[in-house]
Design a protein that fits this description.
By secondary structure, the chain is mainly beta. The protein is about 10% helix and about 40% strand. It has 3 domains: about 130 residues, no CATH class; about 80 residues, Immunoglobulin-like (Sandwich), CATH 2.60.40; about 80 residues, Macroglobulin (MG2) domain (Immunoglobulin-like, Sandwich). A hairpin with a 3-residue loop joins β18 and β19. The radius of gyration is 45 Å and the shape is elongated.
Length: about 375
């Protein structure tokens, strides 16, 4: 009984065959550093002969789909005397047929010619496992049809009206946690799963008008995309600190007396200088935020200096005006360093606003959340 084997590939390889380096048995895959044997050009006999070798071991190969999951018969050992038998028997048989054809005529039998063009069969690559087949399995082939989903990556750059890049611009894709931030050169990227094809992508930055772009624009065109932001024609609320100017005031006092002979003699006046006592210079409130940029869900430090004592409202606001986080904090007059949590929000540019609860004075700083 002939020995049979069956080949199968449990995990097909998705590397590009054309990108591999040709060699004597097929190609060499630089990704997994293995030789890939091209079995798609071999017959069943050649395949069986290949795996008959005891040193075969683990093999990566390229197959036609109809070469897998079916029994392949291994070649039988050749009978030594069979070669000599045919060398004697075949000439005698042909001689007998020739003699018969000279005496008998028969009808010509029309033979049916089959198409020998081999149809296109999918090619599969991967690690091979094989096992002997005692009995050919009864299998049913069911074709599977479907569309291949190719993931697209959208890239672009954000610039101002003069063509200069806008660093750290916020890119809102409409899906929570899927937004992104442009880098210091204004470049950004996101994949198609981050946006609804029927939605809108919003791009904004401090000092510029928020721009809305239909998401279908990204799907219908090839990138990279160039987004131009227009500068705001209005200014947000500005806190102005006034420096007081202290001047010295001098007063002169005395008397004028009328003397006979119409001579006017002025008495020497007593002079006294009075000046306002100079006060301490006005100290300007200032604060800084670090690290900046900062990762969502991490912690940031707010360092204040020369602030009034009191309770301040701490607010994180998006560039479109939405309030992300709001709480009350206490700040001392001298200097303070407060460690606060960063809200788990979409990547983008935000404003941190500190407002004194009693005086209403506001101070703001821009921050980028990654």
């Amino acid at each position: 009984m002939a020995r049979k084997i069956q080949l199968n590939i449990s995990e097909p390889c998705h590397e590009n065959w054309e990108a591999m380096t040709p060699d004597d048995k097929g190609r060499f895959c630089a990704s997994c550093q293995k030789q890939v044997v091209d079995f798609s050009v071999m017959s069943d006999r050649e395949i069986a002969q290949f795996f008959k070798k005891p040193s075969t071991g683990s093999v990566c190969g390229r197959f036609m789909s109809d070469q897998l999951d079916r029994p392949i018969e291994a070649p039988k050992k050749r009978i030594p005397w069979l070669k000599h038998f045919f060398s004697i028997f075949l000439p005698a048989m042909f001689f007998s047929m020739k003699a018969t054809s000279q005496t008998k005529l028969g009808k010509v039998i029309k033979t049916t010619h089959r198409d020998t063009v081999k149809p296109e069969i999918p090619i599969i690559m991967g690690g091979i496992s094989y096992e002997p087949c005692v009995k050919p399995p009864h299998t049913i082939s069911i074709p599977i049809k479907g569309e291949v989903d190719i993931m697209r990556q959208f890239t672009g750059v954000v610039v101002d009206e003069s063509g200069q890049p806008v660093p750290w611009a916020s890119v809102e894709t409409g899906k929570i946690g899927k937004g992104t931030v442009a880098d210091k050169d204004g470049k950004f990227s996101f994949n198609q799963n981050a946006v609804d094809p029927n939605g809108t992508v919003y791009i904004s930055s401090a000092g510029f008008e928020r721009k809305a772009i239909p998401a279908k624009t990204f799907f219908s065109q090839s990138g990279p995309f160039k987004v131009i932001l227009k500068a705001n024609e209005w200014l947000p609320e500005v806190v102005v600190t006034v420096f007081r100017d202290y001047s010295c005031v001098r007063s002169v006092t005395g008397a004028v007396t009328m003397i006979k002979g119409d001579t006017l003699v002025a008495k020497t006046p007593d002079r006294s200088d009075t000046a306002k006592t100079a006060k301490d210079p006005v100290r300007i409130p200032e604060f800084k935020v670090y690290p900046n940029p900062v990762a969502a869900g991490a912690s940031l430090t707010i360092e204040t200096k020369n602030f009034e004592n009191g309770t301040y409202q701490f607010t994180v606001v998006g560039m479109s005006g939405q309030v992300i986080r709001q709480s009350d904090i206490w700040i001392d007059q001298e200097s303070a360093a407060l460690r606060l949590p960063v809200p788990a929000t979409a990547s983008g540019t935000y404003l941190i606003i500190l407002q004194h609860r009693k005086t209403g004075k506001k101070y703001s700083e821009k921050i980028v959340i990654l």
